[in-house]
Amino acid sequence: MQTEQGKLFGRDCLAGNIVLQLTKMRYKMGTGNPKGFVSFLLKEKLKKGLIPRYRGNRFHVLFHICGILVLHSQQFLDFMGSASALRCGGLTAALLYDLQLQTAKKQLYVMGLIGKLLTGPWMRKFYTSQDDVRNISYYEGVTVIKGVLARVNECLKNPFSIFTRSLDFFDEELDANDLVLQVLLLCPQDMQLSVC
């Protein structure tokens, strides 16, 4: 249950509104500040494509961006509070405020983990161009999904197990070199108590 109120416009949860408005700041001329945002990314030695476009209808992108925001949270907070982040009609100040809310931080962690454990593997399993993906029959797909649901339900019985997983919900090995995943699995203890 969301207890804090954010300042960003939107009907989503705090994290969802942050992602939507951040991508507006990154890509939309007039409302956002694409040039300032790119300057920030380059100054921080981050890739220009770090934040993909998100329009509110692709969950795997939403969850991916949440993980990115957790990994680079301090850099984004510094940028939003700096003079180089143009005010963008109040968007920058609202983003800065919402990014500092505890509820938003918790939501970003959870949604980032969902991206790493469920939606990212889903996209790799069913939407990549590998030959074996095209050969998955309906029956095999249903079997895969039933296995995923069983593993998700098992995690619900012991929510803290999400922080010690070595396999995603598709039973595939997690990438030990994934920096976003490493940060998400190091979720601060006080957040773990109320995350799952």
* Strand-residue proportion: under 5%
Query: First CA to last CA: what distance?
Result: 12 Å
The average pLDDT value, as a whole number, equals 86
- Largest sheet: number of strands, sense, barrel closure: none
Using only CA atoms, what is the Rg? 18 Å
Secondary structure category? mainly alpha
Order of helices and strands: HHHHHHHHHH
What's the shape? globular
Estimate percent helicity. 55-70%
Record field, number of beta strands: 0
The number of helical elements comes to 10
Which spans of ≥5 residues are poorly predicted at pLDDT below 50? none
Q: How many individual domains?
A: 2
Organism: Biomphalaria pfeifferi (Bloodfluke planorb)
Protein name: Protein bric-a-brac 2
Question: Which features characterize this protein?
Answer:
196 residues
Write structural notes for this entry.
This is Protein bric-a-brac 2. This protein has 196 residues and is mainly α. It folds into two domains: 90 residues; 86 residues, no CATH class. It is 61% helix and 0% strand. The chain has ten helices and no strands. Helix 3 packs across helix 6 and helix 4 packs antiparallel against helix 5. The chain is globular. The N and C termini lie close together (12 Å). The model has no long low-confidence stretch (mean pLDDT 86).
In short:
The protein is built from 10 helices and no strands. By secondary structure, the protein is mainly α. The protein has 2 domains: 14-103; 110-195, no CATH class.
